Amino acid sequence: MCLGIPGRIIEINGFVARVDVAGATKEADLRLMQEARPGDFVIIHAGFAIEKVDEAKARETLELIKEIIR
């Protein structure tokens, strides 16, 4: 099973974004989402940002993930 996780883009350098995912900083490739901007929430899968999501949906998903891993 594969899981995409939401995160908020902190900064962008070329095609690489630094993304805050539940307090941890990850890198995500933006070549599939070149329209993404700092502050956007995106779904990250296999190191790529694949979809933009609204903040409420991102936070709801992160809370569900936290519940699962408890």
What is the gist of this entry?
The protein is of the alpha+beta class and 70 residues long.
Structural class: alpha+beta
Number of domains: 1
Strand order of the largest sheet: 3-2-1-4-5
Strand content: over 45%
Q: Could you give the order of the helices and strands?
A: EEEEEH
Major sheet size, sense and barrel closure? 5 strands, antiparallel
* CATH class category label: Mainly Beta
Stated plainly, the CATH topology is called SH3 type barrels
Radius of gyration: 11 Å
Q: What is the terminal-to-terminal distance? A: 19 Å
User: In the CATH classification, which architecture applies?
Assistant: Roll
Mean pLDDT figure: 93
Helix content: 10-25%
Keyword list:
70 residues, alpha+beta, 5-stranded antiparallel sheet, 5 strands, 21% helix
Note down, in words, how this protein is organized.
- The structure is a single chain.
- The protein is an alpha+beta fold.
- The protein has one domain (5-69): SH3 type barrels, CATH 2.30.30.140.
- Helix content is 21%, strand content 46%.
- The protein contains 1 helix and 5 strands; from the N terminus they run βββββα.
- It has one helix at residues 55-69; strands at 5-13, 16-21, 24-29, 41-45, 48-53.
- Strands 3-2-1-4-5 form a 5-stranded antiparallel β-sheet, covered by helices on one side.
- A hairpin with a 2-residue loop joins β1 and β2.
